[in-house]
Write a structure and sequence with these properties.
Elements: H1 6-18, H2 30-45, H3 59-78, H4 91-104, H5 113-125, H6 128-158, H7 166-179, H8 182-185, H9 191-204, H10 214-235, H11 240-283
Helix pairs in contact: 1-3, 2-3, 3-4, 4-5, 6-7, 6-9, 9-10, 10-11
């Protein structure tokens, strides 16, 4: 059984953190609850600590440690991949998690280092002041993943290895998410959002042709270049050269889309005339 000094408290906290991503048969904050009960008994019966013993934690330290372990348990439940309807992580628990990470940073074991980073990132992602930053970062990583899959496909083809165009499916998923995400649309122009638009322009070419034809892709690129221009103007209105370049690209792809549609329309008309002529010739044969 752990001692009721501060070292024992940190050991309980570390063991609780170790259980965050594991399946357990009981609440992961149970050990901290037992520590708290033992601590309450100790200070009620032996209020004076021996000068030769390691420092006992203060009452408020134990109370916060209990809050932190409760928040870890809430995080454990919210991130349970096997749960059918996991409870959402409250803003209160997110703030307790961040405060706890800061409080116990130097006492977190090396084995829990990666775990603590994951928990901290998860807590920040659910807070309004960090939400936009993490949302754009997630989309940035997704776009980079799609582009990387395209490179792997090309490398496999060069090496005459079997390869499938999985990148098209990933690209479709990326644009389906980002175009329907009202939250990302509501984020004010910033360098991170500008980078996301630039990456999205590269992903457009990877969309499957059976879902997006040439004119669809030209229209999409035109809209993205308009977004780039607006972002550049909002971030640094003095950057006239880049802003004008973005506007020109938007207009260029808009013209390309119209020309592609016109060509397709003319082709259909010509094809219909040719088919009718062939049918007439056959009938008159």
């Amino acid at each position: 059984m752990d001692s009721l000094d501060v070292s024992g408290l940190y050991q309980v906290i570390n063991r609780t953190m170790e259980k965050v991503d594991k399946h357990t048969g009981e609440p992961i904050n149970k050990e901290m609850q037992l520590y708290k009960e033992r601590y309450a008994y100790l200070i009620s019966h032996y209020p004076q600590q021996s000068l030769f013993d390691e420092r006992r934690p203060l009452i408020e330290e134990v109370a916060f440690a209990m809050d932190f372990c409760d928040a870890l348990y809430a995080y454990h439940l919210a991130t349970d991949v096997d749960a059918k309807d996991p409870p959402p992580l409250s803003e209160y628990n997110c703030r307790i998690l961040l405060k706890g990470m800061e409080t116990y940073r130097e006492h977190i074991s090396a084995a829990n280092s990666a775990q603590s980073e994951i928990i901290e990132a998860g807590a920040r992602r659910n807070l309004p002041e960090f939400r936009e930053q993490y949302l754009m970062e997630e989309y940035r990583k997704e776009a980079l993943f799609v582009l990387e899959q395209r490179k792997r496909y090309q490398k496999a083809k060069r090496n005459k290895q079997a390869a499938t165009k999985d990148y098209e499916r990933y690209a479709l998923h990326f644009f389906k998410n980002i175009t329907n995400d009202a939250e990302i649309k509501g984020i004010a122009p910033c360098p991170a959002k500008l980078e996301l638009y630039t990456l999205a322009l590269n992903v457009v070419d990877l969309l499957p042709q059976d879902k997006y034809n040439r004119s669809d892709k030209f229209i999409l690129k035109s809209r993205l270049w308009h977004c780039v221009a607006k972002s550049l103007l909002a971030i640094d209105g003095t950057n006239k050269t880049e802003i004008e370049k973005a506007h020109n690209e938007a207009r260029r792809f808009e013209r390309a889309a119209k020309n592609t549609l016109a060509h397709a329309s003319n082709y259909e008309v010509a094809s219909a005339i040719r088919r009718k002529k062939q049918q007439d010739e056959w009938n008159n044969h």
